[in-house]
Amino acid sequence: MSRRYRRADGATKREIDGEVFLIGAQNQSLFHLNALAAAIWNLLEEPLTIDEMVEIIRRAFPDMPGDAVSSDVGKLIKRLAANNLVASIG
């Protein structure tokens, strides 16, 4: 069974002048989101595997190269986890 990811407890999204940021619990981290990262954050309302996220993004943006989507999503989740903005379950 693949690991699922969810938003970390206490992590919040803020929009400032059209830019999207994540703020960690107790303000310990600040992370700027590009359009893909913001889409992934929105998907993480429910726990998902990386493969599920990739499939959703690939369907939404069929012109994006599949390998690039897989790589970008994997790197993003790793960075968000390192900054305590997402948590893994399972």
Question: Features of this protein?
Answer:
about 90 residues, about 25% strand, alpha+beta, three-stranded antiparallel sheet, globular
Word description of this protein:
The protein is of the alpha+beta class and 90 residues long. Helices cover 41% and strands 27% of the residues. It contains three helices and six strands; from the N terminus they run E-E-E-E-H-E-H-H-E. It has helices at residues 35-43, 50-60, 66-82; strands at 4-7, 12-16, 19-23, 30-33, 48-49, 86-89. The strands form two sheets. A three-stranded antiparallel beta sheet has the order 5-1-6. Strands 2-3-4 form a three-stranded antiparallel beta sheet. Strand 2 (12-16) and strand 3 form a beta hairpin. The termini are close together. The model has no long low-confidence stretch (mean pLDDT 92).
Outline the secondary-structure elements.
Elements lengths: L3 E4 L4 E5 L2 E5 L6 E4 L1 H9 L4 E2 H11 L5 H17 L3 E4 L1
Antiparallel strand pairs: 1-5, 1-6, 2-3, 3-4
The outline comes out as: globular
Number of E-type strands = 6
User: Could you estimate the helical fraction of the residues in percent?
Assistant: 40-55%
Strand and helix order: EEEEHEHHE
Number of helices: 3
Mean pLDDT, to the nearest integer, reads 92
Given as residue ranges, the uncertain stretches (5+ residues, pLDDT < 50) are none
Rg, Å, rounded: 13 Å
Strand-residue fraction?
A: 25-35%
Strand order of the largest sheet: 5-1-6
